[in-house]
Amino acid sequence: MDPITPPRSSSSSLSWSSWSSPPSVLSHKQQVRVAVIGAGLSGLALGQLLQNAPNVQVTVYEKSLGLDSLSGYRIMVSHFVLRRLHASLSKDIWRKIALSIGISPKDGHELTFMKSSGQEMFSFDAEEMKDSSSVSRWLLRNALLHKSGRFVKFGKTFERFEKLPNGVVNVFFEDGRVEECDLLVGADGVGSKVRNQLLPNSRVSDSDVAVIYFKIPLTPDTKILLPAPSAVMAFMLNNQNIMVHSWVNPRKPWATKFDDYEIAPEDSFIMFGYGSPVGDFLNKEKPPGKFSPEELKEECIARIRLVPNADPRFIALAEKCLINTAYVHVVRDCQAVKRWDTSSITLIGDAVFNISTMLGKGANCAMLDALDLAERLRISDPIMPATRQYELQTCAAENVKRRLRERQRSGLIESLVYFGDNKLQEFCRKQGLKRALGWIDDPHAKDFHSNKQSAV
Ligand SMILES: Cc1cc2nc3c(=O)[nH]c(=O)nc-3n(C[C@H](O)[C@H](O)[C@H](O)COP(=O)(O)OP(=O)(O)OC[C@H]3O[C@@H](n4cnc5c(N)ncnc54)[C@H](O)[C@@H]3O)c2cc1C
């Protein structure tokens, strides 16, 4: 897809021009006051989509003071989601988002599974992989932050809410301030405090798997170390795996602004991920979340070196990881929630429940949640809360359905990836993965990322 020009088709029922209405001139009584907690991808997208809606007054509250530590990585975003963003956001924001979309390999993206020796096992080259792009999360979030001063308040940590009998919600912040709204949206990620209060029985627990991510500058020297043109997942001995994927800046394919520690956020990079059960880490002095960046890099290099016949490219890549780009993702398991009372509080993004990063669907779902919710809020009548509640309930049900399916698909792949590595387990994983990938590419399944039955 050419990201700059308008898409040929979009399943969004509204065109961009119909969304870009002038700023609100309605009185407060005719507007729904929406308070969004969290300026991650879902909260920011919702804020941007609603900021010009005449019937909505939106404010996004974010606890951090700016960019988060995860902003540096790449995410795979489906073209369907990108087309919907294109159709719904203003032109200047879309132009910035377009710059976050990396160059795709000639034949589109695919995921190649490999042995530790670098021998290819098979490739997952389903339509959903080909129909997606590698996107710089940093540039995407920056684009969504464009002119957000009008509706985002940073340094505001949500504490709790109180629902009043008249339907109004009081929102309490750690700084002692209280804000009033008609609809509270929890977009505060996997550890959501909004969800914790709304659904006190929903549980979040740390799994025993941790993935260490680093950036490597993409240069002619590092490109030759890439084991495949697109994404790679290599199964190493000792129950570890390596993920390699790159983001290529369309305006500047080679990185130039980096040293041994840092890289400029807009420079092209290779994302290097190293995952394993925490119990298998060599450094057992502390949990991985407490390792220094140097210790994280040492752990990766030391463990790959222990693998007999490891492809030397994996060791070379690990050695080129830039120290200060280290990020540890301890996989968290958030109980799936099925429904909640949406009359004045709802949830979007990872705050509903998270999805394993294995198939890269969390951000896609988060942005679809925001697009759907914005679409429904824009057509809802501020003085008829009953119709709004119906719209919100329908939206939440779709959101949960989409997430449950993606969670099931990603979870299946994750369990096979960390299946173990004796000969029998290796055999079962190979057979199981092939079947599982066939199942997740089922042509009869509903594809929530293209709004149609998925193509064969
Ligand atoms: C390494 C990695 C790779 C990934 N790759 C992909 C991929 O390829 N494709 C894909 O689709 N997804 C991917 N994901 C998942 C994706 O990043 C997430 O699903 C997505 O970012 C969730 O967005 P969100 O807005 O729901 O939550 P978040 O991005 O977590 O944002 C929540 C925001 O809420 C704020 N907040 C939290 N608590 C409070 C509070 N009390 N008060 C105020 N603010 C608060 C936080 O500071 C944060 O800014 C990946 C995730 C990781 C970790």
TrEMBL record:
<keyword id="KW-0560">Oxidoreductase</keyword>
<keyword id="KW-0274">FAD</keyword>
<dbReference type="InterPro" id="IPR036188">
    <property type="entry name" value="FAD/NAD-bd_sf"/>
</dbReference>
<dbReference type="Pfam" id="PF13450">
    <property type="entry name" value="NAD_binding_8"/>
</dbReference>
<dbReference type="GO" id="GO:0004497">
    <property type="term" value="F:monooxygenase activity"/>
</dbReference>
<keyword id="KW-0285">Flavoprotein</keyword>
<protein>
    <submittedName>
        <fullName>FAD/NAD(P)-binding domain-containing protein</fullName>
    </submittedName>
</protein>
<keyword id="KW-0503">Monooxygenase</keyword>
